[in-house]
Design goal:
This protein is about 40% helix and about 15% strand. The protein is of the alpha/beta class.
């Protein structure tokens, strides 16, 4: 695609990368251990991108990502994403996950239930595993049924889900759904 650009930018967790095209953000790369590795990963995914000065729209995305990575809150739901080449089901998963508020988590099962699609339960995790829009599509907020938070997509660089959730003030075990399940059992029943 002609006109695709990228830039590297500072965040509280290191130097991240973002690539974009005419339709919007094409991908976000969280920091690798060294900036050169972050750049290499971007080049692998976007070999036609040139290092460019970001547009105003991309600057808004960069500022939002940086805010979230320093523990702030930013609404990235309005950031345009270039979904060309992304399967329709994955697009639906990404749209659903974008609505999970900062500091909250959901399980893969919960996301699948929201989609109400046959076989969704088996397709949500692979779709999120290919998520090119780290932080903008906050796949780190989606956990396994046991609320484990260690795996993240390849664009996550050297950063774990647990670290991202910690920055946001979320604890993987504090999912609303888990409390809905456990608290009724743990709460003493009122005497009649």
């Amino acid at each position: 695609m002609a006109g695709r650009g990228y830039t590297i930018f500072d965040t509280a967790i290191g130097r991240c990368g973002i690539a974009w095209g005419e339709a919007g953000v094409a991908g976000v790369q969280l920091p690798e251990l060294r900036e050169i590795e972050t750049r290499k990963r971007l080049f692998q995914h976007y070999p036609d991108a040139r290092e460019l000065r970001p547009s105003e729209e991309i600057e808004v995305a960069i500022e939002g990502i940086a805010a979230i990575l320093r523990g702030g809150n930013a609404d990235l739901t309005g950031v345009a994403l270039d979904m060309s080449g992304i399967p329709a089901f994955s697009q639906r998963v990404y749209q659903t996950v974008r609505r999970i508020p900062c500091g909250e988590t959901r399980t893969y099962d919960e996301v699948a239930g929201t989609l109400r699609a046959s076989g969704a339960i088996y397709s949500v995790a692979p779709a999120l595993g290919r998520n090119p829009f780290m932080i903008i599509v906050p796949c780190h907020r989606v956990l396994e049924a046991g609320y484990y938070a260690d795996r993240i997509s390849p664009n996550g660089g050297s950063v774990s889900k647990r670290r991202l959730l910690s920055i946001e003030g979320a604890q993987p075990i504090t999912s609303k759904t888990l409390f809905d399940v456990l608290l009724p059992v743990a709460r003493p029943h009122p005497q009649a």
